[in-house]
From TrEMBL:
SMART domains: REC, Trans_reg_C. Residues 2-116 form the Response regulatory domain. It holds the Pfam family Trans_reg_C. One of its GO terms (molecular function) is phosphorelay response regulator activity. The keyword Transcription regulation applies. It is found in: Cytoplasm. This is Two component transcriptional regulator, winged helix family.
């Protein structure tokens, strides 16, 4: 899951980036309304966390234009504007949820999960590949019907592979799936995640294509 945080307060942004990163999301950060507008134009985000008091373009105007252009990602407004009129304006502009600053990070994560469950439940199936099944909405992986405990980035890695099981993913493509802009990614980070995931689901489940990357094993 890739998130976009639109927030001009660096201290708040760093806290949210760290917290949501621990939840396993790849999260990008735009510091003003114009930068966010360009980012949203790429259409790659599953959820947007949006401040309202932004430089260069106000958050309400940004949200309104995003929805009018067909943007479908759920949006959680994060703002110090706590009047009823402000909330109504935000919801009418297309927001799905509204959190007043200062907010609890665990509550933000829970609200994000709820919106993503609703969204993935509408558009994504339960993926099945051989012995493995992955349910994005429930955030659950099973092997031969037995639930498996995966950390968030292991889950994200498996989801990327199982969504397109015949495709060979390069390391850089997997880094883009698992990490946001500016996050430090070690030279062997993806290899470490692959090794860890193999230990849990079976080494034979992930095939290394030498000089290219990784894919799931072919179904018999």
């Amino acid at each position: 899951m890739r998130l976009l945080l639109v927030e001009d307060d660096e201290m708040i942004a760093e806290t949210v980036l760290e917290s949501m990163g621990r939840e396993g999301y790849a999260i990008d950060w735009a510091q003003d309304g114009r930068a966010a507008e360009l980012s949203l134009g790429n259409g790659v985000y599953d959820l947007v966390l949006l401040d309202l008091g932004l430089p260069r373009k106000d958050g309400i105007d940004l949200l309104d234009s995003y929805r009018k252009q067909g943007g479908l990602a759920p949006v959680i407004i994060l703002t110090a504007r706590d009047s009823v009129n402000d909330r109504i304006r935000g919801l009418d502009a297309g927001a799905d949820d509204y959190l007043i600053k200062p907010f609890d990070l665990d509550e933000l994560a829970a609200r994000a999960r709820a919106l993503l469950r609703r969204r993935t439940g509408q558009k994504q199936p339960i993926y099945a590949h051989g012995e493995l099944t992955l349910d994005p909405a429930a955030h659950e992986v099973r092997k031969n019907g037995i639930p498996m405990a995966l950390v968030p980035r292991e889950f994200a890695l498996l989801q990327a592979l199982i969504e397109e099981p015949a495709r060979v993913f390069t390391r850089s493509e997997l880094e883009d799936k698992l990490y946001g802009w500016g996050e430090e990614v070690g030279s062997n980070t993806i290899e470490v995640h692959v090794h860890s995931l193999r230990r849990k689901i079976g080494a034979e489940q992930i095939v290394t294509v030498r000089g290219v990357g990784y894919r799931l094993k072919r179904r018999e």
